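TASK: fixed-backbone design
INPUT:
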């Protein structure tokens, strides 16, 4: 039987386009924007201009444009017909859908993390939780939201399941900015903070079931608060 002739490695490599400096910068800009969205630094509906992003990150317009359009193509940001880019505003239906997906993915990551995480990793998560408690008490909710992101992803990355973590990041990118709307009310109730304490305690006992349950509770608490905020946004 005649075999299908494949291009040799050198021939195939010659067909690739060289990566330029703007490509590297665009990726760096995208990473910064992505982390800012997940950490809730932008408000829902906020407009992001190419010029403002370029100015904030001290880059030219080209990498800023590429990063914004890339995130818009992924559904992380929203591009209007006139080419303007905005942080999306969530609907109740989208929150419900993303909540179900997050529960499935994040509880899995939490279970896997319990079997892989080191004592030092648990100590790091406990320290992040203590920092969140301090920010909550001082009502520094912007910092609290950013630390919350680090808390969760330090846990999820301990699972050593990189593809799973990327899927979770995608969900957070679609909800992160809306965390701003549930504070300060959500912080005043302190349910999320109390539940994080349960996550740390379960981790210290290396109880995978309880860690997964507490993660599920954490997601549902934030989801319920988001739905309430969206439903009353026009009041």
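OUTPUT:
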């Amino acid at each position: 039987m005649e075999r299908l002739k494949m291009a040799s490695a050198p021939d195939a490599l010659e067909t690739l386009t060289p990566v330029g400096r703007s490509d590297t910068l665009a990726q760096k800009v995208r990473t910064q924007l992505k982390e800012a969205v997940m950490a809730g630094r932008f408000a829902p509906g906020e407009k992001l201009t190419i010029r403002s992003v370029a100015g904030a990150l001290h880059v030219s317009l080209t990498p800023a444009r590429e990063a914004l359009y890339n995130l818009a193509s992924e559904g992380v940001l929203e591009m209007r017909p006139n080419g303007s880019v905005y942080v999306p505003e969530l609907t109740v239906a989208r929150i419900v859908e993303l909540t179900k997906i997050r529960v499935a993915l994040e509880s899995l990551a939490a279970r896997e993390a319990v079997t892989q995480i080191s004592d030092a990793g648990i100590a790091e998560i406990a320290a992040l939780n203590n920092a969140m408690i301090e920010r909550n008490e001082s009502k520094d909710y912007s910092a609290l939201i950013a630390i919350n992101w680090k808390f969760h992803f330090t846990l999820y990355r301990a699972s050593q399941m990189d593809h799973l973590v990327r899927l979770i990041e995608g969900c957070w990118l679609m909800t992160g900015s809306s965390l701003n709307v549930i504070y300060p009310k959500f912080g005043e109730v302190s349910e999320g903070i109390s539940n994080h304490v349960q996550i740390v305690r379960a981790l210290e006992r290396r109880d995978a079931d309880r860690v997964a349950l507490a993660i599920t509770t954490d997601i549902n608490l934030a989801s319920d608060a988001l739905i309430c905020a969206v439903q009353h946004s026009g009041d």
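COMMENT: The CA atoms of residues 6 and 12 lie 9 Å apart.
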